[in-house]
Structures are given as structure tokens and as C-alpha cells.
Design a protein that fits this description.
mainly alpha, single chain, 17 helices, globular
Length: 413
Amino acid sequence: MNNMKSFKKYLITFLTEFVIIFLGILVYKLVSVKFKEVQFTEYNLFRRSMSLLLPLIMCGLGVSVPRFISKNSARNSILSVGMFIVSIVMIFIGTIMYINKGYFSFLFFGSNKYSFYIPVLVLMILGAGYHAIVYGFLRGKFQYGWANIIQFINIGLAPVVSVYFSDSIYEVLKINTIIWLVTSILAFVFLIRKNKQFLTFIKMKHDLIRLFYYGLPRVPGDFALLLLISIPSFIVLHIYDDFILSGYVAFSTTLLNLVGASFGPIGLILLPETNKLIKKKEFEKLSHILKRVVKFSIIIAFTGVLIFYLFSNFFLDVLISDSTPLLIKTSRLMMSGGIGYAVFLNLRSVLDAYYFKPVNSYNMLKSLLLLMILVLIIKLLNLPFEYLMISYSVSMSFLGFITYIQVKKIIKF
């Protein structure tokens, strides 16, 4: 019976994420059909910018909230404290970004003429932060049904609705932001009422210390991972001074993220589950699960990357209205890092559950450092952008490898 429940939990989460991936692909198809190539690039760079900044306001809460609530299910105040932290940090960062709109516009889009995007970017990051807190709380409570519903609405449905009912990229992003904020705040209010949260100063202070002590050391690692994912498009924008190519690179990293999202459910469920199994000292059961996870990750990721490489022309023609040889080449090179990325995503939760210290952060920083060294060599030797894509794949593969080695050291499988 327990095995059946566990299978059902994974299956429903997988199906939800699969639908979200399909809708994510549909979004880019709609954007490429509905808008011009320049607007397509703007959309890609905006999403990369949002992903890059999100770890700064999350303060490691994406991991700490589900971890602590899964260990102490009665500590419902963690939800309110998490939302409070995100709000305060976003007010600080958002004010800096708004005052320096021109600078951040140049940094993210290569020109200060896009400064009108910055206020929307600030609010969208806030909406994404609220969603992550609510979603993490539900995961930690093992309420995967509700977690899947809010994930489907915000990450799957909202972007499609926004593109379909808009006539400009600015309007797309504005509608998407409103949906994220409204649904996340409503879910938060519902959960407060349902769980009867009563905040006191002592309880709030205790939760703040707890979440910060565990979460803050993980911020550099989260930021390093987002830099790994986002920085290639910005490097192309500023080193090669090619706006369209930077959009292609940003789109290719989005494709890699979609691959990662297909493995995401394993990592999402594995953190609270690993916590529970370690607490019960059921290491043999955990070892059995991890053995299956690693085999599944490598076989499926390798097969997916190979199929994409062989039929990339077909896939890209389906995904967007008009693929080019340059986009095909960029996507192929970027996707070669998918195997290491999949292994990392599926096993990182084990390290977060087992260690209080930020082991994953160290690994991500090492991988980012490797990428930066390779980028410096590329810059000094004035090498073409293809070498940047290869360097990216090498860094992602390195991240997956060291994560695998460290998990194997603590849990024999």
C-alpha cells in the first residue's frame, strides 16, 4: 500500500511537470509566432534576468522552508516568516533597481532604452518569490496535490494566458506578474486560515534565525547555479556584442531548463522524503531509491540529448516559427550539458537533507569558477562563441559528476 501511494505521488507530480513543460514549449512557440525576432529576444533575456535575480531575494528559502516544515509539521509559522523575508529583501533590492533603471537595463538587455522593463521585472521576481515559498511549504507538508495545482497555475498556465491575450511583450510580462502575485497571495491567505497560524515575536525570531542560518549560506550556491544557467547569454551580449545571438543562447538555456524540469519532480519529492528516511535511519531503503534515480537520470537524459541532437531541426521548427542554422548549432551545443545537469538536479536534495552545511553551494561555486576560467581563456584567445557553449557543457557535466561522487560517499548505492 505504501509503495502504491509513493508511486502515485511521483506519477501525479511527473504528469503535472510534463504538462508544464508542454505549456512552456507552447509559450515560446506563441511568442515566436506572435512577435518579431527582436521581441522574442527581449522575452528570453527578461526571463533569464528574472531567474538570475531570484536567488537574491529567496535567501535559500526554496530549500530551507520545505526542509524545516518536513521535520516539524506543526511549525506553520515558517510560511508567514518566509513571505515576510521575501517581501523585505525585495523592497530593498527593488528600490536599488528602480533608482538605477538605466544601469540594470544596460546590464540585462544591452541598452538603457529597455529601462521600462525594470519595474515589471522587480514585481515579477516578487511574484516568483511568493510562489516559491507557498510551493515549498506545501512540499514540506507532503501536500503534493495542492503543490502541483499552484505549480500548474503559476508556472504552466499563467505564461500561456499572458502571451495569448497580449499584443506586446511588456503586456505579456505585466499580466504574468499580476497572475503570480494574486494566486500566490490568495494561496498564502488560504494556508494561514487553514493551518491557524498565530505569530508571536519569540516564534518569529526563532524561525527567522533558523531559516537564515540554514538558508543564507546557500544563497551564493543558488546564485552560482543561476549564473551558470543565465550568464552565457549575457556574455554573448557584452563580449560578442550580438543581440540576436544572445537571444538564441538564452532560448537554448531555456531548453536545457525544460530538460531539467522533466527531472524536477524527483528532486522536489526527494528532499522531504530523504529527511524522513534519514530521521528514521532507513539508509538501505534510501540507497535503493537513489540507485534507481541515478540509472533513470543518466539513461533518460542521454537518450533525450541524443534524440534532440539527431532531430534538432524538426524539434526547433515545432518549438518556434522559424529556426536558423545558428540557433540549431547553439541549441545542440548547449543541450550536451543536459546529462550532468539532470544528475545534479536529482541528487542535490540528498546533500541538502544530509548536510546542514551548504555542500551544494560549494559544488555550484566550483562549477561557476571553472566556467569563468574557461570564459577568460576564450576572451584572451578571442575564440568564437562555439567554445563558450562547449565550456558551458563541460561546467554542467562537472557539476553533475562531483554531486554524484559526494552522494555516493554518504549513501552507498
